[in-house]
């Protein structure tokens, strides 16, 4: 795509009429910045709690926030920055089920995550391991961001002024939070959590005295009831998370942060606290949650749902970004079976982008998958769909990519790997996905008499076609035979073909599949199915 074409996509008329959700969000933020100094760098933030391995939801928040930032820049030309913040000073409450060495970690319950040993033994702490893991994913997608650690911010003094302000408004803030707590919790609640010098634990204890002049709080040591006085600055204390969130917005000057729907009440409470310390809460919106295969919220501590590594094992980066872009106000089930669908929808939008006018391109999801940078979008090339490759791998029991290349070279001569890098990636992914996800669950069934008759007709029909027949002609033949055999709903006919020939309940467009697999090969496949030879 030429530079002039790229500029034309983002001309003012197209920007004004774009209804893609990142631009809608950016316009809301523009209303906020009217109250801010023109020289202020606009701060976008995402938060991550490294109490468990980073999951796709964490990546998604960074991806989506980055898109709002890019849209904001196109609309305003204002300087901005994306901060990825890690709450790594939180105390370890429970050990995630998907990490090793539970026995060692159990000795560090209650200690900040940056003091808990790394169960994987690759970093100095569990918090640093998870931070590093997240950053490596973000870097692989070339996000522009500044990574901040809560431990470093507390200990370096970055938060000191804001912490003193919280101490100055201690009673106001406490009285704002208490009505939201249960009776027992209200008895001991304090915004400040001292870090015990003896045990290193983050203490949830009653604060018996506050000293605004000296910037300290006092509490009774749980082990001996001795009065302990500590500064609220320099990393000697941290804040309870809702208060911490509000303090962080103020200290870092955050203008925009989105959060999950489950945090609506928390956002409202943190906003109240933020105003108590003379700050303006950021703009943002609450997105719907990702669900696992059972419809439950994905959780770092449970380790349910897909990890980023798992998605990228079975599908390209572009398919993950595409899935994340889709309507953030709708809950999505996040499991392995969404990957093929996301890949194929991505390919479909790539193809349509090349045929669209600029006013329509600015609303095409592909523009956002590729970071609002049109020059990164692949050329308008037709690709074999991922679902078709998966079914080819399934029917020929592909253990290696070479098996699929043999069919593809016949189907589309000249499809060399050097010229089709994305196709090469899809073939590699399809073999891995087939062997891990499809092969263990394949279950062929024998055809009944009606199905046998229809299959034999299909064999005879295919034999009358030439090997170079178009996929549309093959598809018409399959349709015709379904109708002649009185399938009231042709979906039942195709479902039968998938179950009998592929050992699964759904499958590809049969015309395209037969064209790729080969007519004579398909005839042999059908005859083997009729004779009960498929396993």
Descriptive notes:
With 535 residues, the chain is α/β, with parallel strands linked by helices. 50% of the residues lie in helices and 9% in strands. The strands form five sheets. Strands 3-2-1-9 form a four-stranded parallel sheet.
Provide tags for this entry.
535 residues, alpha/beta, Rossmann fold, 4 domains, four-stranded parallel beta sheet, three-stranded antiparallel beta sheet, 25 helices, 13 strands, elongated
So what's the CATH class of the largest domain? Alpha Beta
Helix count, DSSP H or I runs of 4 or more residues? 25
Provide the CATH topology of the largest domain.
Answer: Rossmann fold
Q: Approximately how much helix is present in the residues?
A: 40-55%
Shape: elongated
In the sheet with the most strands, the strands line up as 3-2-1-9
Number of strands: 13
Distance between the termini: 49 Å
Number of domains: 4
Q: What can be said about the biggest beta sheet? A: 4 strands, parallel
Specify Rg, calculated over alpha carbons: 29 Å
CATH superfamily of the largest domain: HUPs
User: Which strand-content bin applies to the residues?
Assistant: 5-15%
The average pLDDT score comes to 92
Q: Can you name the CATH architecture of the largest domain?
A: 3-Layer(aba) Sandwich
Structural class category: alpha/beta
| Unreliable residue stretches | none
